[in-house]
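pinned: reference chain
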Amino acid sequence: MFKITDKIINESKIELEKRKKIFPYDMLGRSLASNPFFPKEVKKNLQRSNNEIKFMPIIKEEKEEKLLQQALDLEKDKANCALCIELQPQNLQNLSLIRRYLKLPLLNKQLIFDEYQILESLVYGADFILLSAKFLNLKELKRLLEFTRYLGLEALVLINDKEDLSKAIFAGADILGIYFLQTFNEVSYKKIISLIPNSKIILACNTIEKNEIEKYQNLGIDVFCKDK
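pinned: its structure tokens
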């Protein structure tokens, strides 16, 4: 679901350089002057109140009409607190299509490793972005987090283990997504959650079966990610 590989990163970097040549950073920045989108409140939506169970569905549809219809259908479910849009970089403009019709905050699931991508996310209507502690060093993660907040966006920082968690905390991450690369269970989630400060928002980014959600929620998870 949130698995990131070196191959994905290398392909993303190549694609990014192509986009930079077509639409340079300065030109992208100037386009904000006519940007109709103002970032929505993310943290308030993700934070759990009482014992309510919240979900963030992941949409992978590339066709515009189907993407919009799925988003509209998912927003009707009151348990859904945000939508994660998984698009190829060349289709990122489809975010703008659904942003015009939705109230829920939107996560751009594209792996971010450059300020250009963060600015691009804002231009096309994302409310928060994905950063991976595994593939960024502390300095890079802190810099990208600061730039994200400077633009008025939020970041979901993906962590795979204790080392990632430490890096995310020192970088100042507020929203943490736990994703175990190998097998996982209640014990593995419990161990890493016990190290997370109470002030942080926690998302379970592994697929957890419906009959086990309440058990994992009791560990301190605020939001569960799921395929549409």
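why pinned: The longest strand covers residues 54-59. The CA atoms of residues 12 and 211 lie 36 Å apart.
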